[in-house]
Amino acid sequence: xxxxxxxxxxxxxxxxxxxxxxxxxxxxxxxxxxxxxxxxxxxxxxxxxxxxxxxxxxxxxxxxxxxxxxxxxxxxxxxxxxxxxxxxxxxxxxxxxxxxxxxxx
Length: 105
Fold this sequence. Notes:
Elements: E1 27-32, E2 35-42, E3 50-51, E4 58-59, E5 65-70, E6 79-81, H1 83-87
Antiparallel strand pairs: 1-2, 2-5, 3-4, 5-6
């Protein structure tokens, strides 16, 4: 059997990038609680742990998640959310109540 040949993709590549395409992923602007938020989907390739403000749980390294910040905010205002928590942000608060004996992870 002969080796597989790689064929060129028949679709032409676009000349330029879309306006909302950045080096790190696609950004979109969403309105939440009367403010504009910039939302970026990330693959989770960094080696850091992040704490989701929606569920107060850790986002382990390598897990895909959402980075959101106010449109006119600074770099320090970015928050890393689980995708499900970001989609359910209207149904849950940013700091869930838990009992005194519950673990913090």
